[in-house]
Task: structure prediction
Amino acid sequence: MHVVIAGASGFLGRHLRTELQARGHTVTALVRRPARGADEAQWDPYTGVLDPALVDAADVVVNLAGSPTAGNPHSARWARELRESRITSTRVLAEAIAAVGNPPAYLAGNGISYYGDHGGAPLTEASDSRGQALLTQVTREWQAATTAASEAGARVCVLRTAPVMDRDAAPLKLLLPLFRAGLGARLGSGRQHMAMISLRDWVGAVAFLAEHESVSGPVNLTCPQPPTNAEFTRALARAVHRPAVLPVPSPLLRVGAGAMAPELLGSLNVRSAVLEAAGFEFRDPDVDAVLAAGLHRG
Result:
């Protein structure tokens, strides 16, 4: 297959590109700077620079482009760039896919924040979206930006991705120094569920979706057994051999985390029903396995 990836220079994009190439696929990375080789092509979603022939020749287009979710949650500029970067890149690629004669499949990045806080209720791809938290609103608009591709008959998979737990990426990269210093703490009551996934399962799942034409629609990328925040806190403390006994009070989190507080205190008991039904096998099904894979990745 020929796979075109936007966001191939990011953490997830780099690993996905390597995996797809290892499986024998040809990968072209969309880059904002001038292309430096045959495996790159320049694009600019804000000015409409994108070669239609490249999209026409692709079997799969993957969009992982967007500004980082880690930033100043009290900044209106950060929130605006977060929304615009994701929605614009998704829409431009969807429209480019819709404009070609034989539309390629579209794997469009997204997040599990789509669901909003559902308490302890298990969430599948059929569950509704609740609340008006910042990332919940963004993911709704993000998903809607794929409409042109689906209306043109393209196979569209919306990648509702849980936080990828890896020592080289947020949030684990940010948490490790605290936990190693003995400052790890549960957030609020700790009863809220934390969906998560290991890097190797995320990469394997997206490659699986690229290769399996029978799967379309929203797809949850999360480990089969999401822990509560208290369970995660205990597991990470065990992994680094340090105590973690003090809680961070909910009111303090709401003030400090601002627009991102719902992501810390809301409960997302998300299940990967579509992937499991399609036959994908997770290597890291629970919090201990996810952390072991993320901390000791070779």
Notes: The longest helix spans residues 76-98.
